[in-house]
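cron nightly-structures :: item 1 of 1
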Amino acid sequence: MMKIVITVIFWALLTLPASVSSDDSEELVRLFASCIPDNWTVAVSTDAGPIRGLSHPAAQLIFTESNRWLTCDESIGHAKAFHPTLLLQVFLKDRQQEVESASKREHIRSDYPPLVVGFNDQYIFVTSPGYINQGLRSPEADAVLTDLWKSFARCMTVEYHIGQDTSEIQADTGNR
């Protein structure tokens, strides 16, 4: 019985997706901090759950613009104010097939599919409509992210652009 338990634990450890070390997470923060606009900050996040169809990102980065506010109506007469934010989940490049499959599959059946923002030599950067300004879609909310989005071209090859209709996104990205 003990042999079976040890085998199951060993197999589970082998099949868990890899995550980046805290040093690598900090390196990702430094990479993005060097290319994003001065009014934005980036930090490692542990708050968000996985994007629909994907599990266990290697890291999560939260971008925040603390000098501005966005508001949305939560219910009649009750508005919610928050800083513009964007959450990127980071996946190791060897999970490319899984990410692309999830993007294709979830795009058909979810309002919050994985959106491949871009990639570099090591990582794939993914978000979801619910992680872009807490799901608020409006011309104003999209405009707040424009400079941040443009700056990503200095850190990665960008595939998805803010304000782009998600129904236009092609999940077939064989150019990687």
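cron nightly-structures :: done
The longest helix spans residues 2-15.
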